[in-house]
Amino acid sequence: MEWYTLLIEFTLMPLVAFVVGLAMVLMMRRLRARIERRVGPPLLQPLYDVIKLYSKKTQISHGALHDLGIMMVIGGYIAAEVFLPVPGMMGMAREGDLITLIYLMMVPSLGLALGVGQCANPNGSIGISRALTSMLAYDVPFIIVVAGAIMVYGTSNLPTIIEMQQAGGVAAWGISVMPLLAIAGLISTHAMLAKEPFEVYVAPAEIATGPMVEMSGKYLGALFVMQCFQIYTVSVIFVTLFLGGGENWLFFLLKIFAVAAISSSVTVIFPRYKTDQVIRWLWKWPTGIALLGLAMVMMK
User: Fold this and answer.
1) Is the whole model's pTM more than 0.70, yes or no?
2) What is the 3-state secondary structure (H, E, C) of the chain?
3) CA–CA distance from 20 to each of 86, 232, 235, 291 (Å)?
4) Rounded Cα distance, 296 and 287, in Å
5) Roughly how many angstroms between the first and final C-alpha of the chain, as a whole number?
6) Would you state the pLDDT for residue 217?
């Protein structure tokens, strides 16, 4: 690849992810509001939130590890965006693969643990312990889903996976070829977003907002930006593995917004689980479904 092509992708893909992520946050908020018979936020509210948080006075930093942790929170997802295959920009995506993305997606959670741990606030520490426990819970079924997808496609290269699905039409999509793995993957991605019933590490009524208790101003703004990247990233991965990727930007956006809409709708239905309930439920249902789907894939 030419150097200027790399420069464009390194600059443009994180920017696109942030803008689309803001729109997805707005959609999820308004969808939930409509289900609850509320009006919902105005069109530019997510952008206003980012500007407001970054313009507020920030508390004194708790040290270098605190700042480094926040940099890891944003940096992990920015690096991940470069390797996500989107219509018209698949150059860098061919240099990485699904395994690379999995590692990069773990960096923000570890960075959050590092930054909040530096604060020595007991509420934050409790929230981080719950967050890491939740990550262990949803990573188990997700890794099984990824292993099954790699076995089906014979590769972990995401652009190649998209090409194989698009060549065979809807019948070749992952959701058609391995429906059980698709169901387990959808549940796992919902848990990654820490939405009800899996938002245990936020739990504001129980632990004073958990990891966010020591975050204000630009630090809290960074966590909001991370949420935008996170929603976009997990939706794109699911669409890439099971919905044929994006033939063009219109279908690509429709698919990732549909995945986010399903997650947002589920949050209205279920109450929050406790930590032990999160582990038991994720290791029982999506893991069991994923193992059954993996067995079916191996028998083909």
Assistant:
1) yes
2) CCHHHHHHHHHHHHHHHHHHHHHHHHHHHHHHHHHCCCCCCCCCHHHHHHHHHHHCCCCCCCCHHHHHHHHHHHHHHHHHHHCCCECCECCHHHCCCHHHHHHHHHHHHHHHHHHHHCCCCHHHHHHHHHHHHHHHHHHHHHHHHHHHHHHHHCCCCHHHHHHHHHHHCHHHCHHHHCHHHHHHHHHHHHHHCCCCCCCCCCCHHHHCCHHHHHCCCHHHHHHHHHHHHHHHHHHHHHHHHHCCCCCCHHHHHHHHHHHHHHHHHHHHHCCCCCHHHHHHHHHHHHHHHHHHHHHHHHHC
3) 12, 7, 11, 33
4) 14
5) 38
6) 83
Q: Is the dihedral of CA 30, 112, 286, 172 positive or negative?
A: positive
pLDDT value at position 60? 66
Of 57-71, 244-258, 260-274, which range is least confident? Answer: 57-71
Beta bridge partners of 288: none
Q: Give the range of the structural domain holding residue 188, as residue numbers without chain letter.
A: 3-299
Asked whether the beta carbons of 76 and 70 are under 8 A apart, the reply is: no
Q: Which of the two residues, 203 and 227, has the higher pLDDT score? A: 227
The whole-number average pLDDT for the span 174-200 is 94
Q: Is residue 173 within 8 Å of 244, Cβ to Cβ?
A: yes
Number of structural domains in the chain: 1
pLDDT value of residue 218? 87
Query: What residues pair up with 86 in beta bridges, in sequence order?
Result: 89
Distance of CA 113 to the CA centre of its chain: 17
CA distance linking residue 71 with residue 139, whole number of Å: 23
